[in-house]
Amino acid sequence: MSSLQPVRGTHDILSQESADRRHIVETGRNVALCYGYGEISTPIFEFTEVFKRTLGDTSDIVTKEMYTFEDRGGHEITLRPEGTAGIARAFISNGLAQNLPLRYFYQGPMFRYERPQKGRLRQFHQIGVELIGVPSPLADVETIALGAQVLRELGVLDRTVLEINTLGDTDSRNAYRAALVDYFSKHLDVLSEDSRTRLQRNPLRILDSKDKGDRALINEAPLFADYLNDVSRAFFDDVLKGLDALGLAYSHNPRLVRGLDYYCHTAFEFTTEALGAQGTVLAGGRYDGLISAMGGAVTPGIGWAAGIERLAMLVDTFPPLARAIAVIPVGDDMQETALKIAHKLRGEGFVIDMDYSGNLSKRLKRANKRHARAAILIGEEEVARDVATLRDLDTGEQNEIPLSALSKHLTPFR
Ligand code: ATP
Ligand code: MG
Predict the structure, then answer these.
(1) Which architecture, in CATH terms, is 15-169+229-314?
(2) Which residue out of 278, 282, 311 has the highest number of ligand 1 atoms within 8 Å of its CB and is therefore the one to mutate?
(3) Which ligand is nearest to the CA of 115?
(4) Percentage of residues in the chain with pLDDT exceeding 90?
(5) For 308-324, how does the pLDDT look when each residue is reduced to its tens digit (9 = 90+)?
(6) CATH number corresponding to 325-413
(7) From 135, 180, 305, 369, which residue has the greatest number of CB atoms within 10 Å?
């Protein structure tokens, strides 16, 4: 029955995958902490306006990918497709303009109605950061360095390339936009329908098109670099200089644009060849126009987001799951004593595995199957002598240990 299947593009995250994701989130959070970032958690749904206004009416996300519905109060609600718009909204709603600069780490689920495939889901998860209120190009350097550090600690940095480009300031973008309109207007017959719409409303967006015909045209399109004014060029140079100073390698990709309307100046992506078509693992840029576009005071910002699923596919080794110690009563009469011992050890922070049925050999078999590290056998005769048997399940070696000093003897098996 289809209603017993998860919705296409979603899946259940079981223990091992949960642990892997936790590792990614914790690595991101810890690195962000070292850079002075606090954490923010905004709702997973917002008024649709929040996304429409910030992502732009012509973005793929707004035109095709949003999960939008009317709630029982008649409000138009959208499940968040990305994190930045909600954080900008929170910045305004909470009157945070007095506290600049602000540094936030976030993580959580995002929702986009896309064609599911490897590395592309309808519910996916991101970690990300935002640095709000710093106009200096060094803010761009900081967030990029932070992203690189997260990738380094996950052991994947050397399988990615940092691609970077500039989208310039408003004046440069206007000049470039005019050049693009001029160019693409001469090739209307080849342009995809989507891109023809974009040509009217946001020609820059055409550069982000995935349509094959469009791609060929895009390769011959005018380059942004030729339309940058001095201010924009200097800004970009400073970002690159900062990256050089930190020894962060990058490749200038003059065709790189971000799919969203609110970006200016720096745009960057850490990409990999290891994941096939879905090669972008971490992507971000500067969004100086976003907060004012939403109705807040003009406030610069920069940030990035990385897909947890794509990161998880790249990471080779995750830290192993903590292995349990099985507490096993020998005979039914010992069940309660075993329960009490397990209770006490759990209270001391040991990972304890317990079963409530079966004879000794069955319980040992299950403990092994669950990959327990050791077992404590609680037998009547031993308990009478205030001891228990500790068996190392990896070596089979076993010893009697005093019940009064259990935790001391178990510590090596933690
Ligand atoms: P793409 O070009 O792959 O569609 P995007 O430009 O839409 O990416 P962003 O909005 O920049 O992606 O999101 C940042 C990151 O989030 C991506 O680099 C990717 O790692 C991840 N991501 C985006 N969409 C999905 C998805 N549908 N499923 C899984 N991960 C995703
Ligand atoms: Mg996309």
Answers:
(1) 2-Layer Sandwich (3.30)
(2) 278
(3) 1
(4) 82
(5) 999 999 999 999 888 99
(6) 3.40.50.800
(7) 180
